Amino acid sequence: MAFPMGIPLYTIIVEDEEEEEQQRMEAKRIRQHGKRHHPTRYYPPQRIYRQRRSFEDLSEDLCVRRVRLSKGAIAHLCELLREDLQPHSTARTALSVEMKVTTALNFFGTGSFQGATGNMCNISQGAVRAAIQQVTDVLFNKAPGFINFGIMPRQQRERAKEFCYIAGFPKVQGAIGGTHVALKAPAEQPLIFVNRKGFHSLNVQIVCDAHQKILYVNAKHAGSCHDAVIVQHSTLPDLFHEDNHVQGWLLGDQAYALQTWLMPPLSQPKTQAEDAYNKAQAATRAVVERTIRLLKSRFRCLDRSSGALQYTPQRVARIVIACCVLHNFALQEGHLFNIDDEEPLLPEERELQAPAFEEDEQLEDSSLIAARAIQNQIVQEEFSH
Hints:
Layout: H1 17-37, H2 60-67, H3 71-85, H4 97-110, H5 114-121, H6 125-141, H7 153-167, E1 172-182, E2 201-208, E3 214-218, H8 227-232, H9 236-239, E4 249-251, E5 262-263, H10 272-298, H11 313-332, H12 366-383
Parallel strand pairs: 1-4, 4-5
Antiparallel strand pairs: 1-2, 2-3
Helix pairs in contact: 3-4, 4-5, 4-6, 5-6, 6-11, 7-10, 10-12
């Protein structure tokens, strides 16, 4: 009797007893043959396990270089995540909360492949993958507690005052900018993820305050998406709706279209006041560029110099959000990071783009007229003297 291809012997049902006996003998012969080539492994009564290492076993300097946070900050982070990361198994091989956090932070911080992370922590690559995924998901779920755009009047006044200290630009509620995070070519619709530089990425938009705290992050758009289009399809327009009583605006570069709540630079300044407006706008907006550079320097997995992330776009988006949460957590803990000691990042892949819409096509748009009036008012009242 010929056996179907790919079906093991023990799943075939036969009615003939003789045929069934032949199958049993054949299976026994195969098992015995396998034993000769793969002898039984005998373990000692007291098994010896590899000595695992968490951040607690590292020096303070090595901890900051490899895990990107101080030992005290990591200990606090472990306590915040303990309830969600506590292993359900009582087996001695189960990873502790400290091991999971150390593994994930090392991957985020160094951008190394999972094998190198496992070598540092002395755990298998499968355990590394599971730890990274679990910590990423927990941080993603806790993002609303760390990344939020407060709209209370006191919060708005404080943000505007801190931004005004930079270059005198009034009523600024945040600086908006974007960056590309490289990833492997997705299985579905890979072409839409190819950016202007020719590699696959997510176009991540970030809004920060004057102290480099991330207030908003959008990491769900492909690399080919234009910045202005991403803004249109985000929750930012709703955030600045008149019902929320947000008194101010965001500052962005020329990739963004002029809105009543978003002030880009003037494309062709003609007066001294307009030139002063552009200089103050650029100096104030520069904080988001420094924030992105700090984020990518601390978490090298987001920078293309460490290679593209080998995950799906959905998983990469979660990793981006997790790193933004950790960025704000580090600021909250007062943990500074000296990017001058790090290897230089690759030049930012995001080239200056033209405005999303031609002004001539919007001359009759009432919202554009209102936005232009606000921009002119800022120029005349704040920068004409």
